[in-house]
Write a sequence for this structure.
């Protein structure tokens, strides 16, 4: 495998709340090569977004990264000082958020906001900065970009605002972009447009992406590999095609079979029984066990990641392996 | 934008017209100034002559229209008591109030917003907790008591600052001001602090609440993700995003303090308009009361109008809403 541009190992982020310690991210590890897109999939509250924030060092109090490492281009990010980390944010690693209406400041023009993002990392004259901003806006598909720099966010549609946010994230051609469900708040036709435009831009700039989503269908059309999160842990990871065809973890299998495309027309969609456990009181052992029809006594201890070829899963009773064993 | 200004102007005229009726009727409903203005031993002839001269023999609506007619020509009438034009009377007192109130409200706003942002930005530090504790004091301790304590401590015990009066004044455009001289400034300090405390506490609370709310939003998180320095985020994003409620309260406080700084002016014998209105009410000097209250209404209408313009200037969404 090529030298990874982003290497995450045993990343663990806890929130120290009054009610107790919330283990939002618990030992997440993955590698990302240059230009590679990884989908980070999971239900709400599974720790996807906190994982994204942890990568950029943006976890707010009372949360903090308690252990693990995030290596970007060979530099360890978790031990950097605040100014050093700030210098890398937006420059080498940037992030896009879910709701474009909330991310842009309604009281500043698009141009002002883009110039601030440029000024944060390099000194450009106002004219040069505007030219750069307009160039990026054109690249993300905003027509008459130079004129729109004087516009305010409320004069843009949701899809256009998200494009502006994407342009801001791409201003310095970062090595890695963390995209936190950037198309969820948009309508479906625009979703697809932005999705593929981002894929093309990332490929063009050689930017690697961590695409966070709860929507397996969206991610699988985009990402070359997947990591499935459940209750703060990655329960299964591997190449997208392999995972979709042959899931090992019962949770992944459940996610795939609950995709609308997988169901018979007219039949109710299949679903995984139960809900995500509270991260405050995780059961000892496998957190999925209470919802899993394959759980046994062995699941009372937490399974380690079983690695096989280029994939891995955390389960004592993997789906396909179980089938082979009973045959 | 022009349409917005015209619309607001017409609204202001309507408010002023209604205000003048209410004030006029209200003031005429209380007491009879004749009993106070005219000596009880005066003969019936002198009495009637005085009533006719003051225009008090006419029905209320006639008095009102005469008053309004004069008002439109810039004449607010003559004081019953001092027998000089009301405008002159108020005009002579207004600069004293104006300089005291502007100094205290502006410094309260600047200091309060800075402290409030700090307290909201680092809510758990002991400095923030101290700031908040002080702001509770600012809210709960009565203003007159603080004024007396300030005098007792800084003027009587320490002898650092004068206890009252305006001190040396300088004439600028024919008006006497205290703030340009060091002595005058030293006279302003204590009453200004007294007036500012409550506003300071309010500004701290407002700025802190706004900061805590805004710092959790995606706008700030996204700015951080783009690598903006914290100082830039506070100055360029936060300050604008928390400004609307702060400016609103600033305007209201400015208006009400200008109009009703009575307590502080009395304690520090500051010769401002607050003291004038209290004295006028005591002797039922109707022209002064009416003119003063109408001026106050005018002041509020003007301040609100300016604030609306400021809103439109800083928030593009309101700008568009205003023209639509």
């Amino acid at each position: 495998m090529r030298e990874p541009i982003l290497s995450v190992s045993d990343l663990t982020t806890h929130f120290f709340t009054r009610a107790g310690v919330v283990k939002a991210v618990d030992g997440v590890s993955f590698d990302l090569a240059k230009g590679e897109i990884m989908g980070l999939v999971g239900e709400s509250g599974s720790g996807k977004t906190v994982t994204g924030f942890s990568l950029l060092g943006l976890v707010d109090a009372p949360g903090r990264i308690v252990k693990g490492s995030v290596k970007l281009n060979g530099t360890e990010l978790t031990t950097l000082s605040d100014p050093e980390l700030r210098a890398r944010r937006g420059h080498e690693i940037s992030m896009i958020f879910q709701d474009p209406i909330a991310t842009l400041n309604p009281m500043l023009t698009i141009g002002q906001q883009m110039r601030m993002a440029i000024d944060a990392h390099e000194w450009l004259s106002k004219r040069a900065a505007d030219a750069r901003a307009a160039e990026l806006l054109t690249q993300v598909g905003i027509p008459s970009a130079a004129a729109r720099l004087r516009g305010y966010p409320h004069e843009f549609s949701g899809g256009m605002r998200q494009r502006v946010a994407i342009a801001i994230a791409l201003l310095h051609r970062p090595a890695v972009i963390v995209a936190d469900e950037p198309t969820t708040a948009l309508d479906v036709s625009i979703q697809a447009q932005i999705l593929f435009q981002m894929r093309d831009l990332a490929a063009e700039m050689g930017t690697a992406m961590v695409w966070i989503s709860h929507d397996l269908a969206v991610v699988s059309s985009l990402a070359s590999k997947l990591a499935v999160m459940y209750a703060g842990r990655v329960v299964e990871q591997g190449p997208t095609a392999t995972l979709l065809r042959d899931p090992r973890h019962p949770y992944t299998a459940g996610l795939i079979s609950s995709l609308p495309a997988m169901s018979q027309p007219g039949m109710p969609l299949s679903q995984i029984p139960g809900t995500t456990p509270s991260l405050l009181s995780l059961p000892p052992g496998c957190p999925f066990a209470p919802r899993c029809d394959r759980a046994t006594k062995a699941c009372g201890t937490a399974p380690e990641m079983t690695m096989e070829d280029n994939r891995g899963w955390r389960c004592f009773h993997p789906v396909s392996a179980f089938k082979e064993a009973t045959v | 934008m022009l349409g917005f200004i015209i619309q607001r102007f017409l609204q202001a005229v309507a408010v002023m017209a209604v205000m003048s009726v209410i004030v006029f009727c209200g003031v005429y409903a209380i007491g009879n100034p004749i009993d106070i203005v005219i000596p009880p031993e005066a003969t019936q002839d002198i009495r009637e002559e005085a009533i006719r001269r003051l225009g008090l023999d006419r029905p209320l609506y006639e008095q009102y229209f005469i008053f309004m007619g004069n008002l439109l020509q810039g004449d607010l009438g003559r004081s019953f008591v001092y027998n000089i034009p009301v405008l002159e009377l108020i005009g002579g007192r207004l600069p004293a109030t104006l300089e005291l109130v502007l100094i205290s409200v502006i410094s309260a706003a600047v200091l309060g917003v800075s402290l409030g942002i700090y307290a909201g930005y680092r809510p758990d530090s002991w400095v923030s907790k101290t700031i908040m504790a002080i702001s509770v004091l600012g809210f709960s301790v009565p203003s007159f008591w603080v004024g007396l304590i300030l005098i007792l401590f800084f003027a009587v015990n320490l002898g650092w600052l004068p206890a009252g009066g305006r001190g040396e004044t300088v004439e600028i455009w024919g008006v006497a001001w205290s703030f340009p001289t060091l002595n005058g400034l030293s006279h302003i300090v204590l009453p200004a602090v007294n007036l500012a405390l409550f506003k300071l506490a309010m500004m701290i609370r407002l700025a802190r609440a706004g900061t805590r709310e805004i710092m959790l939003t995606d706008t700030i998180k996204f700015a951080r993700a783009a690598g903006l320095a914290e100082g830039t985020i506070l100055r360029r994003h936060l300050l604008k995003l928390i400004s609307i409620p702060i400016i609103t309260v600033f305007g209201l406080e400015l208006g009400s303090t200008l109009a009703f700084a009575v307590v502080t002016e009395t304690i520090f014998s500051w010769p401002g308009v607050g003291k004038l209105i209290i004295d006028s009410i005591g002797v039922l000097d109707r022209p002064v009361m009416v003119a003063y209250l109408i001026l106050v209404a005018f002041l509020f209408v003007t301040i609100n109008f300016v604030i609306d313009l400021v809103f439109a200037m800083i928030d593009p969404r309101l700008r568009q809403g205003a023209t639509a």
